[in-house]
Amino acid sequence: LDLENELRQAIEHGALELYYQPQVDLRGGHIIGAEALVRWPHPTRGWIMPGHFIPLAEESGLIVPLGEWVLRQACLQNRAWQEAGLPPVSVAVNLSARQFASCDLVDLTEGILRETGLDPHFLELELTESAVMLDINAFIKATKRLKDLSVALSIDDFGTGFSSLSYLRRFEIDRLKIDRSFVNDIVHDPSSAAIVTTVVSLAHNLNLVALAEGVETEAQVRFLRSRDCDEMQGFYFSRPLPAEEFARLLGSAC
Ligand code: G
Ligand code: G
Ligand code: MN
Ligand code: NA
């Protein structure tokens, strides 16, 4: 059995798992969201990380059923946390450019929100600049309709995509996620520091929230606070966690 067939079966059997990485408010220090990150607990190969099977899923078209499973599971989980009385947070789901190009993404999202009963304000979709570049008109149409549903939208890995900045004024984006390659070097590399400072200003001037990804050290946190960055995500606060561990962390904070 090759990996593609195994992945197809894993999707069909609901054998994938979602981990959740906390997103934290830089001023108050509390958890405001969770990014859902898919993992594949493989019976013989151990845990397979998305970097290894998302590209395969994209090439084979399996990203469509995989993405549907991730979206439904993340919404169900977030709804369950809220029902359990945990402080409400948003759940962020990564979308591949390929999924964005599939014309029924908006209908699918609407259906899953209705089915799970999750308030759309607590769902965020993470898009990449490659989704913008794939088909700009389809992107504009889909993002408009998603905003009509009250779903939040962010640009993931911001600054790595070589796309034109003009899309930022044409789309109803809520948040810029500053790529971790920039955040990684802010304390020692003046260029990275300048880029992060500038992206935070850009976000604020466009009324967007700035989130720094890949935050690992106290020094990085201090730098980001000094630049008025709004939110952070990274190993400094927490690695991605299994659902039960995320719930425990969220519950212990209140
Ligand atoms: O969890 P990890 O850092 O290994 O994730 C690696 C990459 O896989 C990240 O770029 C992340 O955006 C992507 N990824 C994780 N989960 C999903 C998912 O459910 N769908 C898509 N399309 N990408 C994902
Ligand atoms: O591309 P995306 O932002 O979706 O990727 C998220 C990935 O980044 C996940 O695979 C997650 O494991 C990883 N990640 C999260 N926090 C950190 C961090 O602080 N440092 C590093 N190196 N990777 C991180
Ligand atoms: Mn992401
Ligand atoms: Na990212």
TrEMBL record:
It comes from the Bacteria. Residues 1-254 form the EAL domain. Keywords: Phosphoprotein. Signal peptide: none annotated. This is EAL domain-containing protein. It comes from Thiorhodococcus fuscus. The lineage of its organism: Bacteria, Pseudomonadati, Pseudomonadota, Gammaproteobacteria, Chromatiales. The chain holds residues 466 to 719 of 874 of the full protein.
